[in-house]
């Protein structure tokens, strides 16, 4: 299944700026959605596709920097490219420290803006792929029985089958069978790969030997 085409969201209260940016972005084949306020953007339905947000620093009511923080609270993880006609160094430092892709002041070069937007789209594309991979891992982990989860948590600590059997008061053969099931269900080709999966899932054993997710 192919990934949807990326979308660039533009938030600026100046209609002429919105129109100019939309024209530039469409000229290079990018889909654009423009908004005159942050409220319009938040209330809109956004496609399930990679994206980037081009955000004016100075907006009526609240600043773009305040909105950057609010996006985090709303779990909207779009990379941001800030644009402004009145930026200063402390403002740009604050934006970049909070994760902005770029902070551009007028007059910016079109190619500089396009490059920053492409960087933002690639960053979002990578985040989405990583999130999808972790979601798939959780789905596999959820398919394990409680006993298989216990054994997986102990296996990834490097414990041998004999030690796990003693911890759980079961036979070594039982551990071996469950361990094989864990490898199959998690689609792990090696112990090292299973360890990496467990790390991403946050799987760890409790002190008494009982595993916890």
Structural features, described:
The protein has 213 residues and is of the alpha/beta class. The chain folds into 2 domains: 7-137, 3-Layer(aba) Sandwich (Rossmann fold), CATH 3.40.50.2300; 143-212, Winged helix-like DNA-binding domain superfamily/Winged helix DNA-binding domain (Arc Repressor Mutant, subunit A, Orthogonal Bundle), CATH 1.10.10.10. The protein has helices at 15-27, 38-43, 64-73, 89-97, 110-142, 146-155, 161-168, 172-186, 191-201, and strands at residues 7-11, 31-35, 51-56, 80-84, 102-105, 204-205, 211-212. The chain has a 5-stranded parallel beta sheet with strand order 2-1-3-4-5, with helices on both faces. A two-stranded antiparallel sheet has the order 6-7. Helix 4 links the parallel strand 4 (80-84) and strand 5 (102-105). Helix 6 packs across helix 8 (172-186) and helix 7 packs across helix 8 (172-186). It starts with 6 loop residues before the first strand and ends with a strand.
Put the structure in a nutshell.
By secondary structure, the chain is α/β, with parallel strands linked by helices. The protein has helices at residues 15-27, 38-43, 64-73, 89-97, 110-142, 146-155, 161-168, 172-186, 191-201, and strands at residues 7-11, 31-35, 51-56, 80-84, 102-105, 204-205, 211-212.
């Amino acid at each position: 299944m192919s990934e949807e085409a990326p979308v660039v969201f533009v938030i600026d209260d100046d209609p002429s700026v919105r129109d100019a940016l939309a024209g530039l972005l469409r000229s290079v084949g990018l889909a654009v959605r423009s908004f005159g306020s942050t409220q319009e953007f938040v209330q809109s339905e956004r496609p399930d596709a990679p994206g980037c947000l081009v955000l004016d620093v100075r907006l009526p009511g609240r600043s773009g920097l305040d909105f950057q923080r609010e996006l985090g609270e709303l779990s909207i993880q779009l990379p941001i490219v800030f644009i402004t006609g009145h930026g200063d160094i402390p403002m740009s430092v604050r934006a970049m420290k909070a994760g902005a892709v770029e902070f551009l002041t007028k007059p910016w070069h079109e190619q500089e803006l396009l490059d920053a937007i492409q960087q933002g789209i690639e960053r979002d594309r990578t985040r989405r792929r990583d999130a999808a991979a972790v979601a798939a891992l959780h789905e596999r982990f959820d398919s394990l029985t409680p006993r298989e989860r216990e054994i997986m948590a102990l296996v990834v600590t490097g414990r041998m089958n004999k030690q796990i059997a003693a911890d759980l008061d079961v036979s070594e053969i039982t551990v071996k069978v469950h361990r094989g099931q864990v490898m199959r269900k998690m689609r792990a080709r090696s112990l090292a790969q299973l360890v990496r999966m467990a790390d991403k899932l946050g799987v760890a054993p409790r002190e008494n030997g009982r595993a916890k997710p």
